[in-house]
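Try it yourself: sequence plus fructose -6-phosphate, in.
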Amino acid sequence: MEVVVVDDANAVAKIAAERITRVITEKPYAVLGLATGSSPLLTYATLIEKYRQNEISFEHVTSFNLDEYIGIAQNNPQSYRYFMDKHLFSNINILPENTYLPVCKVKERPEQIGACYEKAIENAGGIDIQLLGIGANGHIGFNEPVSSLSSRTRVKTLTEQTINDNARLFAYDEYQPHLAMTMGIGTIMDSKRVVLIATGKKKASAIKAAIEGPISAMHPASVLQMHQHTSFIIDESAASELAHVKYYKWCFAEDQKLKKP
Ligand code: F6R
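Structure, out:
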């Protein structure tokens, strides 16, 4: 497990985008696992800039998003499809047919949709790099506390805390879904690499529990301690409750030296 502590959100985005770029450069047919929310916005803006500068092409890339709300249409501005189109897909050369979200309409059978999503990821060759944010309660994707640590793509009911945290994104009279289809924790753990990004003081205790706490279904992100290629890329505020920041910084500096030609 790698913990990279940098000054601010811009530095977090720069490193996260570099990690994704490296994977696509080494493997043009790469499969990306993507997240929505506030955390990845700067990373997506950085990737778009790299694409505009001809540093990267998404022509052969396939993407799978972590989650999607149930009960709102794909053209609804609150849907994660809309978010991804707006903040990434429409600004790069990824083929729309290569972008997947776990969409489950109200009358569809979630077990079937979940199984198909898992199969599609498998058929694509598995996820090469999964980008994650983290909920204040430790959720990854919409795997809320007490989610099975080996769960697969399925429906989850959001906690009151998550609904309240996300209420900022909805107008007061707008319908806010409380159900979502999400990749499972087992699905995320199957990714070849994981990059979790977090910024700001609000994420500090979730980050502390994920990195230095015990592994527990009560704090889903803590399971990443079991993943061989996980990087937490966080700013100073998100790192503010960690006990071993000095050591993490030293490791990163040593690692940079090893990578020098
Ligand atoms: C989004 C997702 C969530 C978010 C998390 C943090 O697709 O799966 O786990 O990453 O809720 O959200 P932000 O980044 O808005 O703080």
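One thing you can check immediately is this: The chain has a mean pLDDT of 97.
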